[in-house]
Amino acid sequence: MKMTVQNAKPLAGFIDLHIHTTASDGTVAPAEVVETAYALGLEAVAITDHDCLNGISEAKEAGQRLGQEIIPGCELAAHTPYGEMHIVGLWAESGNPGLEELLATQREMRKTRNQEILLGLRRIGINLNDTDLAAEVDGGASVGRPHIARAIVHKGFALSVQDAFKCYLVPGKPAYVPRRLLPPEEILVVLKKAGITTIFAHPMSLPAPEAWIGREVARLTELGLLDGLEAYHPEHDRAKVQYVEKLACELGLLLSGGSDFHGTVKPKIKMGVGEGRLRVPVALLERIKARRVQVGLPV
Length: 299
Ligand code: AMP
Ligand code: FE
Ligand code: FE
Ligand code: ZN
Prior knowledge:
TIM Barrel, 16% strand
């Protein structure tokens, strides 16, 4: 009897252009991310750690070993009147001095802020020191609230990372400290100079009026700084996806999408599919690549 393996590659034809690893605040190592992507049949995945490129070489090695396409990337946050604007950069390679300096500055600003968060925790009787925090960093370069949340859990002050966030680390809570961030154009200009494709990540997660988001996207596009919008993301419902698609169409912007996979930091989010409904077709990546080729950038 002939046996067929059903769903051997369940995500063939799809991609995931937004993934975090242990290089920043994810809990899965880059090589393991690539192995999972390969097992799922994803056509390509972008490694987009916060403020660093440290996971890229391991991911590329695993990609070469398996024949899995990897897009090197990163995710940066910029200041807006409504909070953090997240920018995913695709084809971000180490070795560009401007980019390396920007990423190093962001990580330094994180270190200062992490100390302020630890101080806030100490004021309410939660004593965590640098060693406690370092114990939560699995070889990564970019340290933030998820690592602090894990340290809080390990010291017995919360039952889960989610609880630690909810009780201590979000706006209005005793140890919340906002990040000091640069305006989007300052970040985007560095990325563009480094030949990086710039994507406004999960734009509808920003608690801003839709009209403001539309105007800001138009402004950054007219400045030649923005290449695309991440329409497909677990935080975007159907109406938000449609708004972003329309905006991209009106402004001639590319569309992107990804799960924002973080491992157990976001336990409901699975690679490639988010909470289950997400699918990002490989045709989007083909369009992104075509646009890069048009302007002489490598793919
Ligand atoms: P930071 O960059 O240090 O401000 O931390 C933000 C990161 O924390 C995000 O990228 C997520 O990985 C994670 N995060 C944010 N909010 C929550 C939450 N409520 N529960 C768990 N993780 C969260
Ligand atoms: Fe994160
Ligand atoms: Fe983000
Ligand atoms: Zn992300």
